[in-house]
Protein 1
Amino acid sequence: MSKVAPLDLGLNAQYPSLLAGIIPDCNVADRTVQFLQSQPILIYGAGRAGKVLFRLFTYFGIQTQALVDKRHHPIGSIDGVPVKTPQYLREIDLQTNPLIVLGAGGMQLAEMIAQDLAGLNCSLDYINGVYLTFILQFQECSLRAKNKEYPDVAQCASYHGKPHKCPIFCEHVESLALRDNPVERGARASLNSVGYQLGAVRTIQCEHCLEAVPLLDSSKRLSRETIVKDLRKLLSSCKFLHRLDIVGGEPFSHPEITESIQNILTIPKIGYVAVFTNGTRLPRAELCDVLRSDRVYVSVSDYGECLPAKVRKTIAVTLGIFNNQGLKILSYPDRYWVDISGFEKYHTPDAEHVVNFSHCFLAACHRMYEGTLHHCAYQCNGVKPGKFAKKDAVDIHTKTTKELITELNDFDRTPFIKACRYCNIPKGVKAVITGKQIVDKAFRL
């Protein structure tokens, strides 16, 4: 039976400090690199997180013997290093005693990979790549920052899964925002990452939707005036919003998307803007002009082969336009999909909810819709159809600036929310078919 390597415990101690905006102990990072340089390494996971780890290992001179992934066949290799089937772990020479690094972008996925290792009866030690990625990435950025070299915001977003409090990242995006919108900052709330939901108009219908969008009224969109009003009110009580996500349904179907992003970029104290699209709506030239800002990137969801050929063709054309226009894009064709939205109430102890919430990959995905701030998309879109009561949310327009500062700070310190009782994560998430569509729903192209 594989077990957690002792190194993992030291990384575990550094991880929460970094997420709280505290500079980690560089000596721990140095010792970690030295240890890994002396070990044969296998990365379990060749998706987004595994590739980030592989790049970091290469940068620090850590040799990767191979990567392992269930989807090894379509990947083949990464920069000449082979991607093997999980069965490879039963075939390798155990005398070399390689160390397995879990290439996971979140704690729930790391737990799923650890379960896979247990099912293989693998006796090799492993460490959690979630912790390792943050520590090594911070170390690399620290070295580069000495020469005023910063990664673009899309690279930061490719591995950040929690609120963006890395000191180097914050300094960089603040300088970009303050360049465009100079402003004096006083004592305000520490909330620094929010997703704004424009509506629920969608062009595809995923059966396993993390945000439960198919349950919502698909005809409603918020106006540009409402969007800007909400964000200005929120920012009046925040020190700085380092990341703002623009989500739909499908944002590119919003008739005022170009003007909305233009207006958002003029609001003081917003760092960078991430626009999430499924790529099924072709972007107009004027929209591409706005998206070309160095404070904007576009995240393109990849729904795999479940979509009809016509829809996949449209997405390919959209990606071509983005590339031709020189936009910063992220696309995750190798992302694991999990289903959390059972809406069945579980009687899990509060202490377990606290642990799950601190590790939850959605807990950083705060959602604002029509003046109400929710902790995550699952909570936001579970309240609307009445799946559970509206709790642990902030109605920003009913509060004075002083009251809102207090409520936002309390919001940021919440140990877990009532919606956690209706989420599948406490009982263990399971992988589902990527982008499986609801067959009785029509595509809206």
Note: Residues 141 and 149 are 8 Å apart (CA to CA).
Protein 2
Amino acid sequence: MTNLVIYGDKFENGFEDHSWVTHNATNRSPIHSGVYSINVSSATNWQGLYFYHTNFNSAPYESITFWANGEKGGQQIQVQGLLDGKTPADETYSRVDLTTNWQEVTVSLDELDVVGKTNFNGFWIQETPDGPDSPFDIDDVQLNLKTPPPVVAPPAKTPAKSDVSPMGTNPNERIVFWIIGALGVIICLLSCLVMLFWRRGMSDTRAARATPVLAVPNENTAMASPEDWKQRALTAEAMAGKQGQILREKMMPELTEFAKQSLVQGLYAQRNVLLETQQQAQQALVEMEARLAKLHLPWQERVRAYEKRVAELEEEVRTQGEEVRELTRATLALVRKKLEDERELGRISTRFN
């Protein structure tokens, strides 16, 4: 939404020339910009320019800006806002001393006591008797929009059952499931590795039991007895078990650290996804607010527009693919909040008008 132009090279956006002073609205020199300016050749007895518009709501605007040129300088002009064709009070005006060069003049609607009024219908620019009666020029007149407040994300809420997607289809849930799956694979690999070494130790033990070893007899030794072979097999089995235990003690801390790092990276990725989704939803709401403000709709029409958008987003949540459904939910939450704000603004406006 842009500022509302009142006079550029002509009266625009529903404003009309209801002035009661000698003037030329197609003056070619001097001009501030464009092709024409408004020249007032003489203004006596509080004569002035009247920028008239049928009654409308001034709520979106905060000030009037125009450029003025005193030509010879020294004049004093006075700006007064109008409600239903009348000034709110005699003392609600703003006065400016003109110079010989173009100068920008900004007058707040609050100073003129016409801010947030539904029966605002224009303003006057008059020359006061406190300065010389000499020509002056006006150009590039406009109403300035209020500075919009920063968009604040609504607090997170627990989704209703109808808003919860099937397990595993939500992008954030898929990240968690991926982490759990990775941990499961790590545990399976560790178990297989331990089992492999255990079976290898058992094979060596059985081989030691089954293979006879012939001792070379001499006068000091005799053939080993069966008890000796049994003892050797038990010793080999104990050594294999000890080797497996050492392997587990060395590998387990490294695998645990790997699993921890995988979990942290997954949670970080999930946080980035949520932040990006929230930012995209806020941008979508800002663009919608800008389009509605550009149309200058009354609050009832804005409420209907937000209600329509809420219905559209609810339908999209039901029909869209999961890759964009999370963004749609975030946008829907922001639009619902904005709808409630507009309804409250309407109730307040109705109460005071």
Note: The chain is about 45% helix and 20% strand.
Protein 3
Amino acid sequence: MSTNERTKNGAATDVETIRGDLDSLKSDLAGLMDHVKNGALQGVAGRVDDVTTEARRLYGQFTAESERQAEALARRVEERPLTSLLIAFGLGFLGGRIFFR
């Protein structure tokens, strides 16, 4: 075998080795991307659960506070019906003037 043939065989072997390394690298990179994607999705899912829980808690607080305020307003109207009527009339009059301009 001549030196030229050995160089060609050695180059071919090197190219095959590099090709195998590149294929392995592609496979490893694909696995890494899948791992990162799955981890990110799990993190997002956990945060969505946290946000949902917090939203439900805040909604419950808002509902309870709204009911308390409505009951307090109803008591004030019952205690002072004439004052409540005059306030409602005044607000309606002002609202009518503003909206009909």
Note: The two ends are 104 Å apart (CA to CA).
